[in-house]
Amino acid sequence: MSLDSLLTQLGLQRHDPHSLEAQLHAMRREVRRIGKTLSHHASHRADDWADQFSDFGRDAARQTSHFAHLASEQALRGADTIRRDPLPLIAVIGTGLLLARLLKRQ
Q1: Domain assignments of the chain as residue spans, ordered by start
Q2: What is the pLDDT of residues 5-25, one digit of tens each?
């Protein structure tokens, strides 16, 4: 009586590492390992991208704040200039209205 026949009678079979079942089991383990590795790398990449987008957002906010400050200064200068001498503004508005009316007639 061989060991294989004894194990078969007890309902315990030795698994042949070259059998189709053993190969499928090994492939399943390998696919799970690859999936975990890919998930791990994707998680790290997502964290890296999140950090980069966060840095980009902070830089954009800082630049926008700077541009808003410059625009505010220019608007205040323009308002002061108009308060001191409103004639150029009146001339620009009048010229614009006249040009709009002339173009409307044609």
Answers
A1: 17-105
A2: 666 677 666 666 677 887 888
**pLDDT digit string, tens, across residues 32-67:** 999 999 999 998 888 888 889 999 999 999 999 999
Give residues with Cβ within 8 angstroms of 38, minimum separation 6: none
Alpha carbon of 88 to those of 56, 64, 74: distances in Å?
A: 42, 31, 17
Q: Which residues make Cβ contacts (< 8 Å) with residue 3, sequence separation at least 6?
A: 14
Residue listed under structure tokens 């030795």: 14
* Number of helical H runs and strand E runs in the chain: 3, 0
What number of residues does the chain have?
106
Cβ atoms of 38 and 44 within 8 Å: the answer is no
